[in-house]
Design brief:
alpha+beta; seven-stranded mixed β-sheet; six-stranded mixed β-sheet
Length: 242
């Protein structure tokens, strides 16, 4: 799905602990190539490649990867992508980088969680963790930072789901890339999933940052596209925590 000329929504089927679902990474287009926002679940390089092809692009044009946070359905293909495209630049928020480089254990991907996986997925998870020290970040993101990609984006630090979780705002198109700070469930925009959010009070407080943005459209990693009176809905979600 194309939103304007510089933003493309990918659709990738995914199996998780919660069953079959679809995830929605995003591509930002520039003359020098593509910026990929999140990489999909472990072992999904070929579905990712197909999703990029389905929107008329080629995976070889990916020049940058922005990781919104440390969860495996967001960083799962980062090593496979870097093996394929070793000059690709990695970006992530400073508060999640230590987890992605193996300096700290993942917040949610615990040894107990890994042991619950089937054999193939468990092996993939263990291989990813073993390779974490290989990751080198070209740029460490800060809250409020502006980047030129896709016509211009702003980094919004929205912690709670993970310490370094970020959302991205595209002011020229009034679009919010919410990552996991928001979800679309049965056609409605809702807050972060409590079952996957270790610090729910902080994640709900992070919603306040989104209410001050001029937003007409939201793209959620889980649930996809939403454009129904977004600002009023964000105000309702933020006020509900009080």
């Amino acid at each position: 799905m194309n939103i304007g000329t510089q933003l493309l929504i990918l659709e990738i089927p995914m199996e998780s602990f919660f069953g079959k679902t679809t995830i929605y990474p995003v591509l930002l287009k520039d003359e020098d190539g593509l910026t990929l926002i999140d990489t999909g679940m472990l072992g999904q390089l070929e579905p990712l490649r197909k999703a990029i092809s389905d929107v008329g692009e080629d995976i070889s044009r990916v020049k940058r990867i922005i990781l919104t946070h440390q969860d495996i359905d967001h960083i799962g293909n980062v090593h496979a992508l870097l093996d394929l495209l070793p000059n690709t630049a990695l970006l992530a928020h400073k508060d999640d980088v230590p987890y992605m480089t193996g300096e700290r254990p993942f917040v949610k991907l615990t040894p107990e969680r890994i042991n619950q996986m089937d054999t193939a997925l468990k092996q993939q998870a263990e291989d990813m963790i073993r390779r974490l020290p290989e990751l080198r970040f070209a740029h460490i993101l800060e809250d409020g930072e502006h980047l030129s990609y896709g016509g211009g984006i702003q980094i919004i630090h929205t912690p709670g789901h993970t310490p370094g979780h970020i959302s991205l705002y595209v002011p020229a198109q009034k679009i919010l890339l919410a990552a996991d700070e928001l979800l679309v469930v049965e056609g409605e925009l809702v807050g972060p999933a409590e079952s996957a959010t270790p610090d729910m009070p902080l994640a709900l407080k992070s919603l306040e940052k989104l209410t001050v943005l001029d937003v007409e459209k939201v793209i959620c990693y889980h649930g996809g596209y939403y454009d129904q009176n977004v600002q009023a809905r964000l105000q309702t979600l933020s006020q509900a925590r009080e």
